[in-house]
Amino acid sequence: MTLEDRRDVETDVYQPAEDSYLLAEAVVDRLEAESDDVLLEVGTGSGYVAGRLAEELPARVIASDVNPHAVRQAREEGLETVRADLVSPFADDVFDAVVFNPPYLPTDPENEWDDWMERALSGGEDGRAVIDPFLAAVGRVLAPDGAVYLLVSSLTGVDDVVEEAGEHGFSAVAVADESFPFETLSVLELFR
User: Fold this and answer.
1) 8 A C-beta contact, residue 191 and residue 147
2) Sequence-distant (≥ 6) Cβ neighbours of residue 99 within 8 angstroms
3) What pLDDT sits at residue 52?
4) Whole-angstrom distance, CA of residue 33 vs CA of residue 39
5) Side-chain-side CA neighbours of residue 72 (13 Å)
6) For 5-50, how does the pLDDT look when each residue is reduced to its tens digit (9 = 90+)?
7) Domain spanning 3-191: CATH superfamily
8) HEC profile for the chain?
9) How far apart are CA 99 and CA 148, in angstroms?
10) How many angstroms separate the CA atoms of 33 and 88, rounded?
11) Disulfide check for 24: which of 29, 34, 45, 49 has CB 3.0–4.6 Å away?
């Protein structure tokens, strides 16, 4: 990796933090994957969550991100990667589980800037600018008995996310929570 590449990773790729650790742990604990299962992590960032899944579960794991710097970093970590905007390039009914730590921080439009790290963090005014389109699209790529693991913040409105998921045919249960001074993070398991 060149010095310029390293700078790109440091400034343009979301690195693992408390939300990443919570999501990875919850999925590893909950998911009973088989060797022929195929899992997708949307918005992989550094590849930490996909890497944990690949290490600890017997399934095939695919990591995707819209950010080319994130795709490069995840690939360098040895992950199978695809540059993708949410689930758009993937075939119907193929994933036994889809995992997503979306940009969820509510952001005043006047305080946004246009760079890769902002895209990794900003969920728009209500925190759901990426979550809602994801919920509308993920059912198409999910296998009939598949599950979605979605990290959400109390800043985003967990009940609003659950309601939106319900509008797309999903039931939801919180499978992990962790409280911090300014928010509570929850991992929702969505199923049909």
Assistant:
1) yes
2) 23, 27, 39, 40, 41, 42, 49, 50, 53, 148, 149
3) 98
4) 9
5) 14
6) 444 455 799 899 999 999 999 999 999 989 999 999 999 999 999 9
7) Vaccinia Virus protein VP39 (3.40.50.150)
8) CCHHHHHHHHHHCCCCCHHHHHHHHHHHHHCCCCCCCEEEEECCCCCHHHHHHHHHCCCEEEEEECCHHHHHHHHHCCCEEEECCCCCCCCCCCEEEEEECCCCECCCHHHCCCCHHHHHHECCCCCCCCHHHHHHHHHHHEEEEEEEEEEEECCCCHHHHHHHHHHCCCEEEEEEEEECCCCEEEEEEEEC
9) 6
10) 24
11) 49
Rounded CA-CA distance 119/141 in Å is 23
The answer to whether 96 and 37 are in contact (CB under 8 A) is yes
